[in-house]
Each structure stands twice: as C-alpha cells, then as structure tokens.
Write a structure and sequence with these properties.
The protein contains 5 helices and no strands. By secondary structure, the protein is mostly helical. The protein folds into 2 domains: 49 residues, no CATH class; 44 residues. It starts with 5 loop residues before the first helix and ends in a 5-residue tail after the last helix.
Length: 95
C-alpha cells in the first residue's frame, strides 16, 4: 500500500467487506441494546466497533486491491454531493 495516499485509503476502506460487516454488526447490536434500555452500551458499540474496524482495515487490509473494483467505481459514482464536496475540499481526486 505504499503507492496510495492516506486520503485514498480512507475513501476505499469504506467498501472493504470487513468494514461493512463491522458497521452492520454495530448497528444490529446497538439497536438490540437500545431496545433493552441500555443506551450507554448501545452508544459505545455504535461508535467503538466502527472506529476500531476502520483502524484495523486501514492498517491491515490490502486496499490497493479494491482500487480497481466495481465496488470502488460504484461508490465514487454514487457518492452524495456533500461527500463529493468534502473530497474536493480535502484534495481527493476521482480516479
């Protein structure tokens, strides 16, 4: 991953299967905890699991392999205008 800039890694990590799985898992667990009237635990899970998975994927995953996939092209093409503006502001250019 030496050829990729951090901004590109941050963008691409969101389509990594491990990151998607962690986000969905966090949502399900936190919703169950909210249903059981445990808002602090729900909030902790909703925040900590996605942050931890992001750090793990950014540090350990081969994100360059995702750079030329259909998932990467899809997310770039369907990114909302607010996210496009953020990318422009941070200097992340489309591939």
């Amino acid at each position: 991953m030496t050829g990729m800039q951090l901004a590109d890694k941050i963008f691409l990590h969101q389509v990594h299967p491990a990151k998607i799985t962690a986000d969905v898992t966090a949502a399900v667990i936190s919703n169950v905890l909210l249903w059981k009237a445990r808002p602090r635990a729900a909030l902790a899970i909703r925040i900590l699991l996605p942050v931890t998975s992001s750090l793990a994927v950014l540090g350990l995953a081969d994100l360059e392999a995702l750079a030329a996939t259909a998932r990467e092209r899809y997310v770039r093409a369907h990114m909302p205008p607010s996210a496009q503006a953020l990318r422009q502001a941070t200097g992340i250019e489309p591939a």
